[in-house]
Design a protein that fits this description.
Elements lengths: L2 H6 L9 H8 L3 E5 L4 E3 L7 E7 L2 E7 L2 E8 L4 E2 L3 H4 L6 E4 L3 E7 H10 L1 H23 L6 H7 L3 H13 L2 H20 L10 H70 L5
Antiparallel strand pairs: 1-8, 2-7, 3-6, 3-8, 4-5, 4-7
Helix pairs in contact: 4-5, 7-9
Length: about 280
């Protein structure tokens, strides 16, 4: 896989010019990791970002014997990118689920790259700032809404009539009423001395054909509008699910920070406060 194209597919680096991408790609180191091997553990100090070339990894939070799987990543995806910026603790444990080949970017190499190319550093910061702004906007606005009410408020008179016709035309009431009218029509024309529509009821057939010809497009209009409503509902569900996912991710990140502080306090209480 072309390393430059691989870096260009990563949002963090996609705004870099080709020459900067080539320079950064030359700093990548290929590593082969066996199956079921821990790449790094939660709370380890992060120094490396990984890009998956082959295989797959599992990202999870482990607490004793309990394990919460956050994601499974495949070729083209990356993890550990925050360590390039702060060198802080890992927020999750990453383990290979099959033999995996990755490209590793060390924090020292990344720091040297951004130091020698300030314009690229500004591009990376701008990209990350834009992603944070989008996340904040998504988290701050209310995405849950009543799509049914919004659609109903915009309906025209003709659309409401079409919905009523489609609703009645697909019910047992319509079937019984229609059968009753047909039965009365044929009975009256069979009993009356002077019938207006004798057998084989040509006028009745004309009426039935006219009703069917008018009813079909009206029902299709209602079905098309229902399909548009279903699309709006699906889009709203996606936005709600995305916001919930981001919220859960923020909660898990906060939980990780709390656990780190608890462990630090336990070490201080056990071994005493470290000297300055």
């Amino acid at each position: 896989m072309d390393r430059v194209a691989l870096l260009a597919s990563i949002p963090m680096f996609e705004s870099l010019p080709p020459e900067d991408l080539a320079s950064l790609a030359s700093r990548l180191e290929e590593e082969a990791i066996p199956e079921n091997t821990v790449v790094f553990k939660q709370f380890d100090i992060g120094t490396t970002m990984y890009i998956i070339v082959e295989g797959a990894v599992e990202v999870a939070i482990e607490q004793g014997k309990r394990k919460l799987i956050l994601a499974t990543m495949f070729p083209g995806q990356y993890f550990g990118e925050l360590s390039l910026l702060d060198g802080g603790h890992r927020s999750a444990t990453v383990r290979t689920v099959k033999p995996t080949v990755v490209l590793a970017l060390q924090r020292e190499d990344f720091a040297e790259f951004v130091t020698s190319r300030p314009s690229s550093a500004l591009r990376i910061l701008a990209e990350m700032g834009d992603r944070m702004r989008q996340t904040n906007e998504l988290m701050s606005r209310q995405v849950s809404r009543n799509v049914e009410e919004e659609v109903e408020e915009r309906l025209t008179f003709g659309q409401r009539v079409a919905d009523q016709v489609a609703s009645f035309g697909g019910s047992w009431g319509f079937i019984f009423v229609f059968m009753g009218i047909m039965g009365c029509w044929m009975a009256i024309n069979a009993i009356q001395p002077i019938a207006w529509d004798i057998y084989p009821y040509i006028l009745l057939n004309l009426c039935l054909s006219t009703i069917a010809a008018l009813q079909a497009p009206v029902i299709m209009m209602s079905q098309n509008r229902q399909a548009a409503k279903d699309k709006l509902l699906a889009q709203n569900d996606f936005q709600v699910n995305l916001k919930n996912e981001l919220g859960i991710e923020a909660i898990l990140r906060g939980q990780t920070e709390i656990l780190q502080r608890i462990q630090l306090l336990e070490r201080v209480q056990t071994h005493g406060r470290p000297s300055a």
